[in-house]
Amino acid sequence: MTAPSQIALVTGSSGGIGAATAERLHAAGTVVIGCDRTAPDSRPKWLADFRELDVTDEQAVHDTVTAIKAEFGTIDVLVHAAGILGNEPHLLTTPSSEFARVMAINATGAFSVLREVGLVMQAQRSGSIVAVASVAAKEARRAYVPYNASKAAVLNICWSLALELGPDNVSVNAVCPGPVNTAMWNQLATRAGGSDPDGDQRARQARAAQIPMGRFAEPEEVAATITFLTDPANRYLTGLSLDVAGGARLGMGS
Ligand SMILES: NC(=O)c1ccc[n+]([C@@H]2O[C@H](COP(=O)([O-])OP(=O)(O)OC[C@H]3O[C@@H](n4cnc5c(N)ncnc54)[C@H](O)[C@@H]3O)[C@@H](O)[C@H]2O)c1
User: Fold this and answer.
1) Does residue 250 form part of some domain?
2) Do 54 and 173 sit in the same domain of this protein?
3) DSSP H helical segments within 57-108, as ranges?
4) Residues within a 6 A CB radius of ligand 1
5) Are residues 120 and 232 in the same domain?
């Protein structure tokens, strides 16, 4: 007898990492419901359903999760990939409005989505949650301070939820990518490049040179790690903050 398909909710499913993860989960036999504040031009074949959702709208998060649970019967997997980079300010020049904007989407958004789905999984006594944080959550950086702080919040939310949901057979993990070839890094490279026509390429090369593997990740590589963590056979892995970063935090050695 074949096992019933898992039901997965993927936020940020119109973006690079979210779409690649949705596609990979689908290929592994999972029924995937995508959510994003931006609807895709046409629904990709790997999405069984798509719900437009702004993760900062707490009521909409509650209503969407409730509707999916009612319609599909269970939510076995949550992948929370929705997020923004924000503008570039250093700490001393960051307006509090920018800090609040990034925290609202990346940190409070993660809190709301993980809480709502966590309640469903607690009642089911089964599930896997993976949130996309960043290596920036674990390091001091000179720029994108609100982003880094928001991703540190995502990590701590995951650790707390792993503690709370452990007794309910629910795993909660964070993946921490280094640079990934998606629209988000394109935005960063364009900004870093300034008016130099080759500036974005130079910014990419400079960042890649700081990574032992010498290159960025492809979204499919992050998707592969996320999919591994959502496999019920790996349920005993919980509370991890797993770098998917080509060794980026090792330093380059001497
Ligand atoms: N690209 C990288 O280098 C990198 C590195 C580390 C972590 N990450 C994280 O990975 C995740 C996915 O990023 P990506 O690289 O695929 O970027 P992306 O910009 O391609 O995708 C992000 C997606 O999130 C959606 N989104 C943004 N705000 C939202 C909101 N309020 N409600 C619902 N959806 C919203 C966007 O519409 C977009 O589809 C993000 O959380 C990002 O911080 C990315």
Assistant:
1) no
2) yes
3) 58-72, 96-102
4) 12, 14-18, 36-38, 53-56, 81-84, 105, 109, 132, 134, 177, 179-180, 182-185
5) yes
Count CB atoms within 10 A of the CB of residue 177.
26
Q: How far is the CA of 17 from the centre of ligand 1 (A)?
A: 7
118 and 45 housed in the same domain: yes
* Mutation pick for ligand 1 pocket among 182, 191, 211, 216 (CB with most ligand atoms within 8 Å): 182
Strands (E), the chain: 7-11, 31-36, 49-52, 77-80, 127-132, 170-177, 241-244
Catalytic residue flag (residue 147) = yes
Give me the tens of pLDDT residue by residue for the chain, a chain 254 residues long: 667 799 999 999 999 999 999 999 999 999 999 999 999 989 999 999 999 999 999 999 999 999 999 999 999 999 999 999 999 889 999 999 999 999 999 999 999 999 999 999 999 999 999 999 999 999 998 999 999 999 999 999 999 999 999 999 999 999 999 999 999 988 998 999 988 889 999 999 999 999 999 999 999 999 999 999 999 999 999 999 999 999 999 987 76
| Entry field: residues in the chain | 254
**Distance of CA 85 from the midpoint of ligand 1 (Å):** 8
**Nearest atom in ligand 1 to 80's CA:** 41
Q: Do 138 and 199 lie in a common domain?
A: no
Q: Give distance in angstroms: CA of 191 to centre of ligand 1.
A: 17
Full domain range(s) for residue 210: 181-216
- Total domains present in the chain: 2
Same domain, 139 and 199: no
Look at residue 4 in the predicted model and tell me its pLDDT: 73
Contact status, residue 155 vs residue 242, Cβ threshold 8 Å: no
How far, in Å, CA of 37 to CA of 62, rounded?
15
